[in-house]
User: Fold this.
Amino acid sequence: MTDLADKKSPGAEPQTMTTGAILDGKATAAEVRGEVAALSADLARSGRAPGLTVVLVGDDPASQVYVGAKDRAATAAGFEVHTVRLPATASQEEVMGTVRSLNEDDRVDGILVQLPLPKGLDSDAVIESIDPTKDVDGLTSSSVAKLVSGREGLLPCTPAGCIEILDRHGVDLSGKDVVVIGRSMLVGKPFAQLALARNATVTICHSRTRDLAAHCRSADVIVAAVGVPKLVQGGWVKPGAVVLDVGINRGDDGKLVGDVDFAAASAVASHITPVPGGIGPMTIAMLLANTLRASAARQGVHLEGRIPGPTL
Ligand SMILES: Nc1nc(=O)c2c([nH]1)NC[C@@H]1CN(c3ccc(C(=O)N[C@@H](CCC(=O)O)C(=O)O)cc3)C=[N+]21
Assistant:
């Protein structure tokens, strides 16, 4: 964690405003990945290393970048990683057939189908075809049902990464007013469920919300996950609030920008995640943790309690 107050030049006026601490997702994710790598080595000694297969359909440039990052991180953690590449013209049956053969492959502990799929493919049906015990993205209806009903299961990686970075910095959600901006199945809805399980009071805002700024101004924690560059302004953040920026928007200059105006929000927030270097790296770290968990379960090895990441 970097305290912004440390960056003052010598002799500067003492800071009277709330100074935000940057929640360093890159460093926190590295810590998680190190723990996963050590457990992965234990597992490899007693049986075999965790196996992750990523299914990439088409040639979306952003997806190529993300899949490359997942592959490198999983390889560095000692996993057996494979990427199955299918052309953008692949049929529904070809994609689902690929998933079914991975379901039956004993060396594959985790299956991740990179989203979004090319137009014309039914991604819900593809996701549903994943064996729930191998659903390291936590997106199948089986995983969603477990999350909503409070039973242990594989949690979606981005929301899990949000909780994990808070846990590792001593930020407790119990009793807090949490505002989630965005209602996607990948982030907004599952994060709201996790925050609820941590006893937060949760409001989910979306495109039809009448006064988003007012909701944000009253929030103790803001989670921005809509994909609108710099939507959350500094004046929307209550002094001392916690801000998690899940937005990954590519600007015209090619640079990444989040859903939060970081410069303005970081002056008032108590803790804030940057983009890049915030929730993105945590997402990948949680994918590794989920794959490790799935692999230990498949191999009948009890690592529970030692695997990083939130549980219900
Ligand atoms: N089935 C599926 N599961 C996913 O989890 C999934 C997906 N599909 N489709 C796309 C989104 C996006 N996503 C990211 C993961 C890491 C970074 C990440 O590490 N970003 C770096 C920067 C990377 C860069 O420079 O482009 C950072 O924020 O610091 C970003 C985005 C996972 N997703």
